[in-house]
Amino acid sequence: VEAVHLIADGKAPRIPQPKEGATYEGIQKKENAEISWDQPAAALHNWIRGHDKVPGAWTTINGQVVTFYGSSLLDASVPAGQELTIKGASRPGLVTKNGLVVFGNDGKMVLVRNLQFEDGKMIPASKYFSADETTALELTEEEKKMAEDIR
């Protein structure tokens, strides 16, 4: 009641908020979102999901910054996949049909569904090794004629 009366009378103390710690913007910087691999799988999952979508948890793979999106804990036997060396990880990841499997320091697994490269290109993690493959569009004779008519 006393506080309400002080405010009503215009006599309430005014203490300016300090600038330090006044915003969350400092936390959401990309340089602060690098994945530290010396953690259990649950902590890795929480880190990746906690930075999903902004700014995105990232690591270095083959000298390139790769951002991870859409993680989930994987409680199963180790799936078959192609090994992928990840900088700082004690064990290589596995590119599987469901995504990229990474390992915590406790041996448990995290499944990452999407990867984004430095150039902004996002792919399903399961397509990591086929990301650079491009297929040429081949037209039939009928389609070539139609394309020429459209031109």
UniProtKB/TrEMBL annotation:
SUPFAM superfamilies: FMT C-terminal domain-like. Signal peptide: none annotated. GO terms for molecular function: catalytic activity. Residues 29-130 form the Formyl transferase C-terminal domain. InterPro entries: Formyl_trans_C (IPR005793), Formyl_trans_C_sf (IPR037022), Formyl_transferase-like_C_sf (IPR011034). It comes from the Eukaryota. CDD domains: FDH_Hydrolase_C. This is AL1L2 dehydrogenase. The lineage of its organism: Eukaryota, Metazoa, Chordata, Craniata, Vertebrata.
